[in-house]
From TrEMBL:
Taxonomic source organism: Staphylococcus lugdunensis
Entry keyword annotation includes Methyltransferase: yes
Protein's recorded name: tRNA (Adenine-N(1))-methyltransferase
The entry's keywords: Methyltransferase, Transferase
Xref: Pfam families: TrmK
InterPro entries linked: SAM-dependent_MTases_sf (IPR029063), TrmK (IPR006901)
GO molecular function: tRNA (adenine(22)-N1)-methyltransferase activity
Length: 229
């Protein structure tokens, strides 16, 4: 049986029964774990580069799961074929903008029954805005720390009506904002410190627009952190 790190174990909690498509599959660890633990019946492991694609195929073969896990070479959601019925799509270990790009470019492959399980390393706000544009509503969020890195997990499902979120919910996460924990505060204190450092480096004359953007972002974070206690 394969074991997963804390980050992917948390992602695995949200996999629905049926078929999982894991995009950017990193040795197919998540699909192998999901099938072995009966979280799903079958899986697709998608890789865009030949080397990781071959490594994933070898790993699936080594675990005797070639009948249940199909390793496919392709860009983003292109590894999902028109006749596939997908219950869960996982995209992990990437920046929010890249995950957003994959979803936008592959939106024709997103069906109403597909759950999205997305783990971004940075800039999750961009991802949340894209989910709104694609009519996906956020049903779960988690924030966790592993080996000194903070990760956010966003789980979403299709909605007939376009979801409505405030600027606070898009930036901080609608569910994370309601359930603030120590990791949440740690992340945003760190972001605040970084933004204040950037602000000091900006020339008010030549970087006026960027300075205004950073100042507004600082105000937003300080407003949320003011309720820490």
């Amino acid at each position: 049986m394969i074991s997963l790190n804390k980050r992917l174990q948390t992602v695995s909690k949200y996999i629905q029964p049926g078929v999982l498509a894991d995009i950017g599959s990193d040795h197919a660890y998540l699909p192998i774990y999901a099938v072995q633990h009966h979280l799903c019946n079958n899986a697709i492991a998608g890789e865009v580069i030949e080397g990781p694609f071959k490594a994933a195929k070898q790993n699936v073969h080594a675990h005797h799961l070639t009948q249940q896990i199909d390793v496919r070479l392709g860009d983003g959601l292109a590894v999902i074929y028109d006749n596939d019925v997908i219950d869960s799509i996982s995209i992990c270990g990437m920046g929010g903008p890249l995950i957003a790009k994959i979803l936008t470019e592959g939106q024709a492959k997103l069906s109403k029954q597909t759950r999205l399980i997305l783990q971004s390393n940075i800039q999750t706000e961009t991802l949340r805005k894209t989910l709104v544009n694609l009519n996906f509503t956020i049903i779960a969020e988690e924030i966790l720390i592993e080996k000194g890195h903070i990760y956010e997990i966003v789980v979403a499902k299709y909605s007939d009506e376009k979801p409505q979120y405030t600027k606070y919910e898009l930036k901080f996460g609608p569910i994370l904002l309601r359930n603030k924990n120590d990791i949440f505060f740690s992340k945003w204190h760190h972001e605040l410190t970084a933004l204040k450092h950037i602000k000091k480096q900006l020339n008010p004359t030549t970087h006026q627009e960027r300075l205004q953007e950073v100042s507004l972002e600082i105000d937003l974070i300080e407003e949320v952190l003011a309720n820490e206690n």
